[in-house]
């Protein structure tokens, strides 16, 4: 009897296993998977192509006046603070000499006709901003010691850090446009060049004057776009992301769409390269040719693709 029950249970288990197999097949599915690579495309453009290089220019005051003590003594008052704008001849400090503080009113007690205070007023030597303050009231200073620095407002410029090989692209121009970090654009006039070159970077400072500095601070970095080369006429170009290369960067190609679902590999020869576009010297494309700009990396020749909007 037990043997029959054992055979019955084996039959039931076998039947259950047989029924589970179609379920597994249904889970795996028999529908074909879409193996096409999603891509986006752009058309070849023809027209002028300008090659710009972006350089840094730093704001600076070329002329600075150093306010110094004219004798030994103590600072009684200081009508200055960093960032304050002062005019030429404006009182900045009052200084009492060491001797007058030591003697006090003894001289006036001896002779009331003598009006000796021993207090000296130190004035601004030029018009500008207080960019450095070295002493406060109560400090003892010596003759010739620096008290403050005044940056001459009229000497405010931007100093362009120019690679020496780009001198012809800049020095034959009269104006450039400066882009400040806050989005402000300034028209700058190219001025003289500094007589020295940085030994490490081989760059030379070029003075760029701006018509109204306003409240632009010193040491602010602006961007200057310099036109390096210009090509007009019927130049064909593609977006930079469309051009692919190998590990040695000696061979270049693009993936061209030949129908709605196939892209082929087209070797190209590059020309001028800008920040966002590349000139294609060879081959000559037909207007309207579609070139892959995303999803093109690593695709083989005659790859199956799916164009997305």
What is the compact description of this entry?
With 309 residues, the protein is mainly β. It has four helices and 21 strands.
Write the layout of secondary structure elements.
Blueprint: H1 2-28, E1 37-43, E2 45-61, E3 64-68, E4 73-78, E5 85-86, E6 91-97, H2 98-103, H3 106-110, E7 119-123, E8 128-133, E9 140-141, E10 146-152, E11 156-163, H4 167-171, E12 175-179, E13 185-197, E14 203-209, E15 221-239, E16 244-245, E17 252-257, E18 262-273, E19 277-282, E20 290-294, E21 303-307
Parallel strand pairs: 1-21
Antiparallel strand pairs: 1-20, 2-11, 2-15, 3-10, 4-6, 4-9, 5-8, 6-7, 8-10, 11-14, 12-13, 12-15, 13-14, 15-19, 16-17, 17-18, 18-19, 18-21
Q: What do you see in this structure?
A:
With 309 residues, this protein is mostly beta strands. The protein has three domains: 38-50 and 231-307, Beta Barrel (conserved putative lor/sdh protein from methanococcus maripaludis s2 fold); 53-61 and 155-230, Elongation Factor Tu (Ef-tu), domain 3; 70-144, RNA polymerase II/Efflux pump adaptor protein, barrel-sandwich hybrid domain (OB fold (Dihydrolipoamide Acetyltransferase, E2P), Beta Barrel). The chain has helices at residues 2-28, 98-103, 106-110, 167-171, and strands at 37-43, 45-61, 64-68, 73-78, 85-86, 91-97, 119-123, 128-133, 140-141, 146-152, 156-163, 175-179, 185-197, 203-209, 221-239, 244-245, 252-257, 262-273, 277-282, 290-294, 303-307. The strands form three sheets. It has a six-stranded antiparallel beta barrel. It is elongated, with a radius of gyration of 39 Å. The two termini are 72 Å apart.
